[in-house]
What does this fold into?
Amino acid sequence: MELSSLPALNALLNATSAIFLLSGYWAIRRKLIQVHRYCMLAALLTSALFLTSYLVYHYNAGSRSYEGEGAIRFVYFAILLSHTVLATANVPLVGLTLVRALRMDFGRHRVIARWTLPIWIYVSVTGVVIYIMLYGV
It folds into this structure.
């Protein structure tokens, strides 16, 4: 795989993660616990693959400057800042949420998951938005 194709792969992995997260939420609301578990583990795996690909790309290629001008530039940097801060915060949140689920501490799992899930979805979706704004479609 060429280095130049990694940003598109990263966007695809982010979108896939968001789909798994929404599917996992849908499943747990319907008490489909096993489906929820598979969806959330798939989201975790997809996000881990994203992070690996993202780090490989930026280690080798560096950063890309945003070329937009005017008000859209402010929008881009607002999205980028919120995405970056929440992505950083989400790593320990996902870990804690996962540990509580694996320990079958579902009461405390639910409490933290109510914060983790929307942040994780936001980070996944804004990752795609950032890709579109940087690279176009």
